[in-house]
Specification:
Chain lengths: 415, 370
């Protein structure tokens, strides 16, 4: 049986199922349940866990067929990194207990990784996990947690052994969020939004049955989870972080939300429009800056195109690791250009000055690219070491018991 | 399809790279640099007979391989990596010019010699002002009963001192046209000038009523001129990519090997981060150069933005990477014996030839509608 025949047969199956089941008028929850039960929500998962045991090529076919009729609901085998991590590291009992509620959307996750004292150096985390009977007691603080309010569970990394080097004393848990001892507080951002939270853990409990991977082997589970997260990042292209100001009326918010050319980060033609509108198209400095910005955007698009063409079996493209730096360069350059174009007006802000507000919002939003998900400096280390093969910096804490390592303060209240 | 390198492409790249490793090593380059012509004619003959490089872009009916800009870019990339000092790019560009002219008779007369490696050729575009643009041409051609003659002077002509044939851009009234001029014709004087890039010879060519052969129709001259300039920019970009990649490889290798303060200097983030940024630049330049080569072969409608963007970006990246290579090498890069300065010289000069990055960026701004 050729790959093409397999693809054809999957396509036929999906089409037939959609023909029988797709109903635009169905409530979202009801539709989602139907897709999950059918196995089409997560085609690459095993059959016993709501999947169909298919490969990544097959899931593209499923995507195409769902998109063709305009149906949502497939793709949780990419987007649900919690279930993916549990499938990769969980025991049979854990999979049996945790996958179903995640698949049906009854349980929702969040990531309890970063701490005030553990940002770029995540392995320096200091949240404590102490054994107590058939469970663990958790004490410490996590930060930059998205969706912490809505989450029923979090993927938590905590220190279970202080007498070994930092990577070797970490344990990974599927941690219940709805309990005493968990306090979630939103962090107010420079953009006016509050997409992240800090999570205070004070004597919170997690059963040992919720431990993913061996005791003190949590760093390994974490690497898998981070891999699934990168997969999602790769699947999403860009994305606007949105701007919210508590003092804005709904009308003002709508005005700020409307598609503004100032926020467009791809397609130099938009900057061109603005330069012309402002009568600065002849300014030689502006011309050079816009040409540079357009160039950064174009070469990044071409890199993506080339990475796609190069990514065959066994051909890992170095381009994959470069996209983040490229994007930071684009967004920060974009801010420079738009600020330069706007000139003095860029000192203004708020709904009365929507252009200036957009420029200033995007100025801060640019740091989502250069700090969020790992700083550009850490990314340069990764590129230098893993792609170019340059030696690592000597690490003072490498083979020292974590207890004796110099540490940043473990807690700090941001909100 | 863009970026789909075929087995033939890879075979061509491998062949040129292995040849360059064996025959164009630094010792050979230095030896060639010290000769009056600046390149080794025996190696040129081998490039022609063993690899068929001069005839790569020449159609099969004229004894060539009928390849396109993508294949030329692959060769320019690999030869640029080795800082090849011979007239490959110049000759290939002249062949592209003959093809762009659409002049079947001239093609039949001149391309077989190029394909065989017997005719070395170049393109003479810029003049004393150092501009590669149709509206900057002062050289002019006139026609009389016994044919066309060209008058004026051409500057920054690469490889003119060894060329048998020159493609000369000249004004005809308010039009532009391409002409074939033999370098041994009366009224042609080629004077080599001292260049900063000692791996490549430049000349000033005086044309004092030199007999010239009009290529194609004057009416189509502007279009042919534009095609030559596009091809020249993309080949320069591909050469720059090869040079930049070599410079980055050198810098990274040295950073791994050089020890100071008890550790390899590449473990210092000050060095590591420069190299990581350079990798982004070099890989982006590679994407641009090959995208542009494909765009030319596919007769893309985006050449007006793609070509100036690519020339500007790749030139900048080559210079920045060659400069980084100097800095990473520290004191040793300041010695004549070390090859760092050869890459720096090539990069700094190549940045200006065929139009400086700022000129091309301005051209890009215009193409974007500014």
């Amino acid at each position: 049986v050729t790959g093409q025949e397999i693809e054809m047969s999957i396509r036929t199956d999906v089409r037939a199922w959609l023909a029988d089941n797709w109903d635009r008028d169905l409530p979202h929850d009801e539709w989602q349940r139907r897709v999950v039960e059918s196995g089409w929500a997560a085609p690459t998962w095993p059959v016993e866990y709501f999947g169909r045991g298919l490969d990544a090529d097959a899931r593209k076919v499923v995507d195409e067929e769902f998109a063709r009729v305009g149906a949502s609901g497939t793709g949780i085998d990419v987007m649900n990194l919690y279930a993916n991590t549990i499938l990769a590291h969980g025991t049979k009992e854990q999979k049996g207990a945790f996958i179903a509620p995640l698949a049906f959307g009854e349980h929702r996750g969040c990531l309890l990784y970063s701490e005030p004292g553990a940002g770029s150096d995540l392995a320096a985390l200091q949240t404590r996990a102490e054994r107590d009977g058939d469970g663990w007691v958790i004490t410490g603080q996590k930060v930059w947690t998205s969706n912490a309010q809505e989450a029923t569970h979090g993927m938590l990394v905590a220190r279970s052994d202080w007498d070994v080097p930092k990577h070797r004393g970490i344990t990974f848990f599927w941690f219940p969020m709805r309990q005493d001892g968990v306090e979630v507080r939103p962090i107010h951002q420079v953009t006016g939004g509050a997409e992240f939270n800090e999570v205070f853990l004070d004597g919170a409990r997690v059963p040992d049955a919720n431990r993913l991977g061996e005791v003190n082997e949590g760093w390994r589970t974490l690497q898998t989870a981070l891999g699934f997260e990168r997969l999602i990042m790769g699947a999403k292209a860009g994305g606007n972080t949105g701007d919210r100001r508590p003092d804005w009326t709904p009308e003002q918010q709508a005005e700020a939300d409307r598609e503004s050319p100032w926020t467009r980060q791809v397609g130099g033609a938009d900057y061109v429009e603005l330069a012309r509108a402002l009568g600065k198209g002849g300014d030689p400095v502006i011309r050079q800056e816009i040409a540079r910005l357009y160039t950064y955007e174009q070469v990044n698009a071409w890199n993506a195109l080339r990475a796609g063409a190069e990514s065959g079996p066994g051909a890992a493209s170095p381009l994959a690791s470069l996209g983040k730096l490229a994007m930071s360069r684009i967004v920060h350059s974009g801010v420079r250009v738009t600020s330069e174009l706007l000139g003095a007006e860029s000192v203004l802000d708020g709904p009365d000055f929507p252009e200036a507000a957009e420029v200033n919002r995007s100025a801060f939003a640019a740091y989502v690219s250069s700090i969020g998900g790992g700083t550009d400096q850490v990314q340069r280390n990764i590129i230098g070491e893993r792609v170019l093969g340059l030696p690592k910096e000597p690490e003072l804490d490498r083979s020292v018991a974590f207890r004796d390592v110099r540490k940043a303060p473990a807690t700090r209240r941001f909100s | 399809v863009v970026f789909t390198f075929t087995a033939e492409h890879e075979a061509l790249r491998d062949a040129v790279r292995s040849f360059a490793r064996a025959a164009l090593a630094e010792a050979e380059l230095r030896k060639a640099m010290s000769t009056p012509t600046g390149f080794d004619p025996a190696v040129w003959t081998r490039l022609a007979t063993e690899l068929g490089l001069p005839g790569l872009v020449v159609p099969e009916r004229f004894d060539g391989s009928g390849a396109g800009l993508v294949e030329l870019a692959i060769v320019a990339d690999e030869l640029g990596r080795a800082l090849y000092s011979g007239p490959f790019t110049s000759t290939a560009l002249a062949a592209v010019a003959l093809l762009a002219s659409g002049d079947a008779a001239a093609q039949a007369d001149l391309l077989p010699g190029i394909a065989a490696g017997d005719t070395i050729a170049t393109a003479a575009i810029a003049e004393a002002e150092g501009q590669w643009a149709a509206d900057a041409l002062r050289c002019s051609a006139t026609v009389a009963a016994d044919g066309w003659t060209v008058r004026g002077s051409k500057h920054y002509v690469v490889d003119a001192h060894v060329a048998d044939l020159m493609i000369v851009a000249a004004a005809v009234g308010s039009d532009v046209a391409l002409f074939a001029v033999r370098t041994d014709a009366p009224g042609v004087r080629v004077a080599v000038v001292t260049g900063f890039d000692i791996t490549r010879r430049l000349a000033v060519v005086e044309l004092d009523g030199a007999p010239a052969r009009l290529l194609g129709d004057v009416a189509d001259g502007a279009q042919a001129f534009a095609r030559v300039l596009d091809a020249a920019c993309v080949l320069a970009a591909a050469e720059a990519v090869g040079g930049a990649a070599a410079a980055l490889d050198m810098a990274v290798a040295y950073a791994k090997e050089r020890v100071q303060f008890g550790r390899a200097i590449g473990s210092f983030q000050a060095i590591k981060h420069m190299c990581a940024d350079a990798l982004l630049d070099v890989e982006s330049a590679r994407s641009a150069a090959y995208y542009a080569a494909w765009a030319i072969d596919d007769d893309g409608d985006d050449l007006a933005t793609v070509v100036p963007l690519t020339k500007a970006f790749c030139s900048d990246v080559f210079f920045d990477t060659a400069a980084l290579n100097m800095q990473v090498h520290g004191g040793i890069s300041f010695t004549w014996e070390h090859p760092c300065h050869l890459y720096y010289r090539r990069a700094k000069s190549a940045k200006q030839l065929w139009g400086a990055p700022s000129v091309h960026r301005d051209r890009l701004a215009t193409a974007l509608g500014l």
